[in-house]
């Protein structure tokens, strides 16, 4: 009897505390911050976070080109949440900053309705001319193996790339709890000084529906879109291998490529590879038939694929149906496209047991691609990520250097894949 009375008293005390201080599941805190683009990366930035409750619609983001730390009143600009979407048990707030200055650092802090402040973060807009140099990280397939996933994320924070290309399969079952953990782990991509690396995302087969990407990253509803960098320096085409390859998506791709002839570099990002490099995966003929001819016709330089959980990079290839040509491709060093991937951001590894005659190198380990690009050339390295916490951090001044202890994969064909501009 005494135990029951004590239990009732404890409950009443807890309820009284919640009434006085707010119910713990509706506190307007700020978490799971991520950055992305749907417009010009030189003059815009999309900032998304979890407000924890519907009251978060009144949260305010303060920003400035001067770092004021947590003195939010000192920031010259402020904007309230522009969109709030309840999805995957998160209240996903979106603020889309526009009319920013190219090649400029912006510092920001978010104030919750209860007065609590987020950490102070910052990002840098992309330069708006073709003479700039870009650092890019590309990969996919993190799934639920948190140790290698966190390791890869930690390396993102240390390499200080301009952005990440992520090819889908963030989680294994697309569940709310898994997504929350994914975003918690994504915090490891934020550098110690608060620098956030934006991410451009594609949908994978483990995202059960388009909304898992479009609502969590505020992309186009069909999850196919393009982003241009440095005026005509680079155009990235994000495609969706999980919906109809033909129809509206194919019409869009054909039109986008036709309008992009002036782009010096063209990259494609999508999930399922045309020609997987593991026997566990079947050939994707529908993707090959629809996209490979367009890639070749319009000079696609690099294609980033995922899904297979292997490591691969091809020589430049073009589609060909002549006898003796391997699985519909033949090497073409002058005008061919390089295909790379295929995942390994933490997902269960598979054997690289389906190489082709045009495969440059393949393997099976946790990795992503690190790409340095200017108007004349692209240099791409494959980075093993498991020792991330031993790797030194780069700074803004030396972010194209190779940090100490970084594991750059060096197959017999060489560590660096170099592409030369055709323009």
Automatic annotation (TrEMBL):
<dbReference type="Pfam" id="PF00149">
    <property type="entry name" value="Metallophos"/>
</dbReference>
<protein>
    <submittedName>
        <fullName>Exported protein</fullName>
    </submittedName>
</protein>
<dbReference type="InterPro" id="IPR015914">
    <property type="entry name" value="PAPs_N"/>
</dbReference>
<feature type="signal peptide">
    <location>
        <begin position="1"/>
        <end position="22"/>
    </location>
</feature>
<dbReference type="GO" id="GO:0003993">
    <property type="term" value="F:acid phosphatase activity"/>
</dbReference>
<dbReference type="InterPro" id="IPR008963">
    <property type="entry name" value="Purple_acid_Pase-like_N"/>
</dbReference>
<feature type="domain" description="Purple acid phosphatase N-terminal">
    <location>
        <begin position="31"/>
        <end position="125"/>
    </location>
</feature>
<dbReference type="InterPro" id="IPR004843">
    <property type="entry name" value="Calcineurin-like_PHP"/>
</dbReference>
<keyword id="KW-0732">Signal</keyword>
<dbReference type="InterPro" id="IPR029052">
    <property type="entry name" value="Metallo-depent_PP-like"/>
</dbReference>
<feature type="domain" description="Calcineurin-like phosphoesterase">
    <location>
        <begin position="153"/>
        <end position="309"/>
    </location>
</feature>
<dbReference type="InterPro" id="IPR039331">
    <property type="entry name" value="PAPs-like"/>
</dbReference>
<dbReference type="Pfam" id="PF16656">
    <property type="entry name" value="Pur_ac_phosph_N"/>
</dbReference>
<dbReference type="GO" id="GO:0046872">
    <property type="term" value="F:metal ion binding"/>
</dbReference>
């Amino acid at each position: 009897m005494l135990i029951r009375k004590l239990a009732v008293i404890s409950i009443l005390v807890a309820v009284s505390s919640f009434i006085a201080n707010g119910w713990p599941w509706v506190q307007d805190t700020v978490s799971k911050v991520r950055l992305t683009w749907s417009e010009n990366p030189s003059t815009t930035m999309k900032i998304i976070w979890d407000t924890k409750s519907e009251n978060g619609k009144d949260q305010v983001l303060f920003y400035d080109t001067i770092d004021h730390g947590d003195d939010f009143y000192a920031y010259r600009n402020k904007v309230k949440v522009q969109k709030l979407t309840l999805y995957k048990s998160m209240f996903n707030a979106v603020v889309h900053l526009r009319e920013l200055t190219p090649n400029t650092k912006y510092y920001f802090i978010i104030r919750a309705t209860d007065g609590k402040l987020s950490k102070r973060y910052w990002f840098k807009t992309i330069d708006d001319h073709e003479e700039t140099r870009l650092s890019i990280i590309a990969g996919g397939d993190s799934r639920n193996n948190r140790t290698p996933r966190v390791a890869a994320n930690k390396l993102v924070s240390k390499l200080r790339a301009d952005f990440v290309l992520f090819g889908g399969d963030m989680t294994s079952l697309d569940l709310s709890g898994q997504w929350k953990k994914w975003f918690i782990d994504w915090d490891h991509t934020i550098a110690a000084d608060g620098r956030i690396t934006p991410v451009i995302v594609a949908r994978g087969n483990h995202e059960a529906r388009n909304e898992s990407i479009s609502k969590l990253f505020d992309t186009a509803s069909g999850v196919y879109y393009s982003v241009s960098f440095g005026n005509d320096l680079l155009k990235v085409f994000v495609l969706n291998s999980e919906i109809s390859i033909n129809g509206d998506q194919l019409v869009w791709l054909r039109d986008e490529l036709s309008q992009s002839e002036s782009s010096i570099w063209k990259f494609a990002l999508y999930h399922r590879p045309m020609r997987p490099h593991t026997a566990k995966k079947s050939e994707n003929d529908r993707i090959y038939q629809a996209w490979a001819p367009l890639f070749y016709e319009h000079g696609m330089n690099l294609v980033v694929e995922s899904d297979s959980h292997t490591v691969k990079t091809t020589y430049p290839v073009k589609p060909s149906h002549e006898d003796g040509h391997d699985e519909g491709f033949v090497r073409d060093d002058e005008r061919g496209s390089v295909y790379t991937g295929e995942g390994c951001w933490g997902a269960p590894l598979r054997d690289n047991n389906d190489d082709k005659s045009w495969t440059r190198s393949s393997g099976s380990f946790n990795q992503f691609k690190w790409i340095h690009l200017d108007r004349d050339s692209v240099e791409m390295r494959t980075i093993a990520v498991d020792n991330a916490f031993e790797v030194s951090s780069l700074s803004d001044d030396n972010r194209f250097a190779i940090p100490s202890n970084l594991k750059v994969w060096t197959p017999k064909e060489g560590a660096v894949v170099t592409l030369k501009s055709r323009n």
